[in-house]
Protein: ATP-dependent Clp protease adapter protein ClpS
Amino acid sequence: DDEDDGDVALALKTRPKTKRPPLYKVMLLNDDYTPMEFVVAVLERFFSMNHAQAFEIMLTVHKKGLAVVGVFSHEIAETKVMQVMDFAQQHQHPLQCTMEKE
Ligand code: TYC
Structure:
């Protein structure tokens, strides 16, 4: 009677926090030397794109300077960046891949 909506007020203040983990954009950067076919192969191999999708994203990077190629959890994003950077180094291409919090 005195404080009939006390628990409602409390419920509003103590709403369960369901915090989702942050997501990270993985980006490919343009350069003047990495062959277009190599970038397409990277997108097919590490980002599960078909050839047409991969070619389109590669052209976007080539024209705009960079593009987001996927959005992942922190751990998956780090793994993708490592895989791309290792693969590029193995083939002596200067291709750069980075990640950024969404
Ligand atoms: N600019 C490169 C070329 O003309 C192609 C390229 C595309 C390189 C995308 C990197 O992330 C890249 N051969």
Observations:
- Residues 19 and 71 are 18 Å apart (CA to CA).
